[in-house]
Design brief:
With about 120 residues, this protein is mostly beta strands. Helix content is about 0%, strand content about 50%. The protein contains no helices and eleven strands. Strands 2, 4, 5, 6, 9, 10 and 11 form a seven-stranded mixed β-sheet that branches. Strands 1-3-8-7 form a four-stranded antiparallel β-sheet, with no helix packed on it. β4 and β5 form a beta hairpin. The protein is globular. The protein starts with a strand and ends with a strand.
Length: about 120
């Protein structure tokens, strides 16, 4: 499967962005999908994950209450709505797919990765 992330940009603190991840090559309807982010000099961390049917979600502590992950299996798409953005949210954001049934919450559980989209939040 190929994953293409989009929707990043330069915004001010308090603004919102919606990232999109388009999958191609096969259906992702049975995959757990995740959004990771990586700031310069830092590890790649899981931001949010959603199970294959959308019934279960995971959020990192720093984004709880501000970010929402969703998916549209009919369109082979995954989204990350980011509200009340903060400068600390500045990073490259990656979408990823995992064959894990349920929620995959570690980096090495993900098998396929998109190319990343830059999000920069100014203060």
């Amino acid at each position: 499967v190929q994953l293409q992330a989009s929707g990043g940009g330069l915004v001010q603190a308090g603004d919102s962005l919606r990232l999109a991840c388009a999958a191609s090559g096969r259906s992702i309807s049975s995959d757990c999908m995740g959004w990771f982010r990586q700031a310069p000099g830092s590890a790649r961390d899981l931001v949010a994950a959603i199970s294959w049917g959308g019934a279960s979600t995971y959020y990192g502590d720093s984004v709880k209450g501000r970010f929402t992950i969703s998916r549209d299996n009919a369109k082979n798409m995954v989204y990350l709505q980011m509200n009340n953005l903060k400068p600390d949210d500045t990073a490259v954001y990656y979408c990823a797919a995992s064959a894990i049934y349920g929620l995959a919450t570690t980096l090495n559980e993900y098998d396929y990765w998109g190319q990343g989209t830059q999000v920069t939040v100014s203060s």
